[in-house]
Every structure is written in structure tokens, then in C-alpha cells.
Amino acid sequence: MIPENMDITSIEKEDVANCHFPHEEVLSDADDRKLRAANIKKAEALGNIEHHKIAIVFEDDKRVYKVTTTIWAAGEDNIVLKKGVIIPVARIHKINLL
């Protein structure tokens, strides 16, 4: 999970495309990874059916960000936002349904 003392920066979904993502997993706990996967599937369904917005907390090579958006597609390795913006699943700390 995200360390309590870590700052989270808001980012627009269009700017996520400028982020550089390392390959390392940000969640060390297997149960946290399972919860993240379940939340991604739920968020994808809500995004496609109801265009429901969510908050995604993720980390690139510089900082932790939060983006409010919809998930249009989700695979095992990546999620896809509107306009084809991709976030690697391994870099996602948390999905919050709004």
C-alpha cells in the first residue's frame, strides 16, 4: 500500500501518457494484488456500462499520482483509459470507486 507520508499528486488523464513506468510491482502483498485485480474488473464493467468515474492511485518513476477517469479496457498487464492512455497494472496502488 501507499506509505502514509507519501504525497499524492493529481494528474489529468491526458498527462498520464507522459509518465514513464518501471516494470517493478508496487504492491508487495498478494492479497492487495488480488483486491486490486477485483477492483479493476469492477471499475472496467462500471466504466463500460455506466461511464462511472473512478480514482486510480498509481506510481511512475518519479512520484505517486491520482487520476479520476473511467477504465475502458483492462487486461492482465495494463488498463486502458480514454484516448488509449495506458497504465501498467503493476504500477497501480489503489482503485477507488467514486
Give the tags.
98 residues; four-stranded mixed sheet; three-stranded antiparallel sheet; 1 helix
H-E order: EHEEEEEE
Structural class: alpha+beta
Residue runs with pLDDT of under 50 for 5 or more positions: none
Mean pLDDT: 92
Helix content estimate: 10-25%
Order of adjacent strands in the largest pleated sheet: 1-3-2-7
Q: How big is the Rg? A: 12 Å
Describe how the helices and strands are arranged.
Layout lengths: L7 E3 L19 H21 L3 E6 L4 E6 L1 E4 L3 E4 L4 E3 L3 E6 L1
Parallel strand pairs: 1-3
Antiparallel strand pairs: 2-3, 2-7, 4-5, 5-6
Task: Write a structural description.
The chain has 98 residues and is α+β, with helices and mostly antiparallel strands. The protein has one helix and seven strands, in the order βαββββββ. The protein has one helix spanning 30-50; strands at residues 8-10, 54-59, 64-69, 71-74, 78-81, 86-88, 92-97. Strands 1-3-2-7 form a four-stranded mixed sheet, with helices on one face. Strands 4-5-6 form a three-stranded antiparallel sheet. It is globular, with a radius of gyration of 12 Å. It starts with 7 loop residues before the first strand and ends with a strand. The mean pLDDT is 92.
